[in-house]
Specification:
By secondary structure, the protein is mainly alpha-helical. The protein has a single domain, classed as Glycosyltransferase, CATH 1.50.10. The protein has helices at 34-53, 60-89, 93-98, 101-121, 126-153, 165-169, 173-181, 185-212, 227-239, 243-262, 264-267, 280-293, 298-320, 327-332. The longest helix has 30 residues, at 60-89. The chain is globular. It starts with 33 loop residues before the first helix and ends in a 5-residue tail after the last helix.
């Protein structure tokens, strides 16, 4: 009786492509570009508020601010078109990007940046702004549903609560800003109270986690996101006639900012990465919130704006220059359409 001789030949693999295949144009657009774009739009809006505080809205200084906002809008539109092209080419990339932390944060920041873009348009096209803001809110809601479904399929450790959850669950608060400025205070009030609870839950769980679980060094910059809800809740509270709440959240923001600054070396110990985009939009939002409070709050607001003017463009440049050549996509594991 003969025994079957096992094939001992090594497995064959296809030969590598030469020259290497290049992805199609924008097929691997990384969602990680959007946190810094949100930061740039927020910086422009904070500068617009500062010009109003100084009585310079109609001056050359105000013109410079509006020109910068226009440039940021063009850059944002280009990025949104690139992301939309990727998703339309193969819709499944949306879920694939949500499986990794930079993708989840970036996609939520994309729809939040659309809400910020609506705020930029308020003085120029109120009618368009309303539709723009509503569309952005609807897309953010759809994104949240897809995110929840995606998280349910991931391993338990991959779906644990992180600061990036603020972007998906509390990010609607950005849409309350243009709605309040358009006079739709009822909508803004509803969004304010609807986002307050998830913000408090995420703050509480994250604080409890810090007592027993030290975040990995590369993910520590995400802790800066905790400042954003406090800043935006303060900003919206002031717009809906709740000055006490506005000041309360401003004080909470000060506590969070001081904690972040005291731990800055620990937070940045891993060196620069695309996750540094998490430093940009919270800083801009908090500067805007302080400038909007009035009174002596203007002074720390101006100081923070000066800091933001130095920090945010520098981080945005470092992140965006990685976009060409798919370097940013490789660093953040962006899916390919």
């Amino acid at each position: 009786m003969t025994e079957t001789v096992k094939d001992r030949r090594p497995p064959s693999y296809p030969a590598p492509e030469f020259p290497p295949r290049k992805p199609r144009l924008f097929a691997r657009t990384p969602p990680a570009i959007f946190p810094v774009l949100l930061g740039l739009l927020g910086l422009g809006l904070a500068a617009r508020q500062a010009a109003a505080v100084l009585g310079q809205s109609g001056s050359p200084l105000g013109g410079v601010v509006e020109t910068a906002l226009g440039a940021f809008m063009i850059l944002w539109l280009f990025a949104i078109a690139a992301l939309a092209g990727k998703i339309l080419r193969r819709p499944a990339v949306l879920v694939e990007d949500m499986r990794v932390l930079p993708g989840r944060a970036g996609l939520a920041a994309a729809t939040m940046s659309a809400m910020a873009a609506a705020t930029v348009l308020v003085p120029y096209a109120p009618g368009l702004t309303l539709w723009f803001a509503m569309a952005a809110l609807a897309l953010h809601g759809l994104l949240l549903l897809v995110l929840v479904q995606t998280l349910m399929r991931l391993a338990p450790e991959a779906r644990s609560i992180s600061p990036a959850f603020h972007l998906a669950f509390v990010g609607f608060i950005v849409g309350a800003v243009p709605l309040a400025r358009l006079g739709l205070e009822g909508w803004a009030v509803a969004i304010f109270w609807a986002t307050l609870l998830p913000a408090v839950v995420i703050w509480s769980v994250s604080l409890w986690q810090l007592r027993s679980l030290v975040p990995p060094a590369p993910q520590r910059p995400l802790l800066a996101i905790h400042l954003a809800p406090a800043a935006l809740l303060s900003l919206v509270a002031g717009q809906i006639g709740q000055p006490a709440l506005a000041m309360g959240f401003a004080v909470l923001g000060a506590v969070i900012l001081l904690a972040l600054m005291s731990a800055a070396r620990w937070i940045t110990v891993a060196g620069f990465s695309p996750l540094w985009g998490a430093f940009t939009f919270p800083l801009a939002a908090y500067a805007n919130a302080l400038l909007s409070l009035g009174g002596t709050w203007h002074y720390p607001g101006m100081v923070l704006l000066a800091l933001a003017l130095a920090v945010i463009p520098a981080i945005a440049w470092q992140v965006l220059k990685l976009w060409p050549g798919n370097r940013l996509a490789l660093k953040t594991n962006a899916a390919e359409a």
